[in-house]
Amino acid sequence: MKLVIIDYGAGNIKSIQFAFKRLGIDAVLSNNVDEIKAADKVIFPGVGEASSAMKMLQESGLDKVIPTLKQPVLGICLGMQLMCNHSEEGNTKGLGIFNVDVKKFSNSVKVPQMGWNVITDLKSDLFKGIKNKEFMYLVHSFYAENCDESIAKTGYEIEYASALLKDNFYGVQFHPEKSSLAGEQILKNFLELKTNN
Amino acid sequence: MLTKRIVPCLDIKNGRTVKGVNFVNLIDAGDPVVLAKQYADLGADELVFLDIAATLENRGTTLDMVLKVAEQVNIPFTVGGGISSVEHVDALLKCGADKVSINSSAVKRPDLINELAEKFGSQCVVVAIDAKQIDGEWFVHLAGGTIPTEIKLFDWAKEVEKRGAGEILFTSMNHDGTKAGFANEALAKLSELVNIPIIASGGAGNVQHFIDTFTLGKSDAALAASVFHFGEIPILELKQKLKENNIPVRI
Hints:
Chain A is α/β, with parallel strands linked by helices. Chain A has six helices and 13 strands. The longest helix of chain A is centred in the last third of the chain and has 13 residues, at 180-192.
């Protein structure tokens, strides 16, 4: 199993690498196009601001590469948001993998949403063994709207898509690497997904 | 529904836990990694490590500790104490810290908040505020609450939010160490004033104090040290009680 975590300068990737290490998998950090293409599974992380993260992707040419990947890809947090059509954060055009827009929570709730909330309406092998209303750790100010590609939902101000799936592309708004045992189970499930590469 | 967070705080000196901790039979109660793992298993929602003797010389030791915690612990954690530069924060985050907490350094140079929020995102910037109520007015204090300033708590809270703080950790010097309850009046006012999460700190003594700070104090999270470290309030029991009182918790 060759697992690559895309290292394009956005965010805390060490935690993700450690989480996989706890599962017995040595993930490679890379921004090398060939290495990413050759991986069995790819993690697309991201923490920070959308437009600057997108800029970093463009600088390394990864914005063109990621949508063409054939193996299972898991976008986490901002990574997932960048896989959408458009984000209100910095008026950023996304990679357009998920046909949905990313909006900002209004001031009727505290922003960012920070802490543990539940995921419901689970629809994918990614959630094998995960019970409905399992708690996940989230930190975010922007959210993907509910849509046909939702495979999990979470409620905060409104009900939004806390996980998305399109073909081989998975995205989760929460941080499985920080979500205790249930989060580890999701990462394990991702590792066990069939590889089409 | 977003749940209220229970946050044990561990004091660290030279990479080791300092305050006595004896809530379970630990082989090495001074090992932050062992403790952190225990707390994660017992249901803590996140952890705060406070480097109480942070100096330039022992920075490497702390980074090493952060790396070890990140390797082993599967819940989020914040590191605070003696952080005053973008480079230092960069190093901490690269070692796997999820958030950093800044305090005196933010008061001395408020632009630090903007710089950190721009470079790393608001989500990892916790601004800790120590304040003391003097003649009815809350004033910000520095250096662990020892040095008073003229800065008013609520003005400062507004400013740190505007500058990009993702969260405020508020410690009432009047309540800290008293075990008589959190500063709920000030906390509720803070919560109404700013639109970022507020962590209550200082005064936890019993379960009712937690219920009060989540209801009357409108806190988003509650931090405590000794009541957890000495097993006076087992976290799971606390959460069950909170749940019985209709306070949403992860259980």
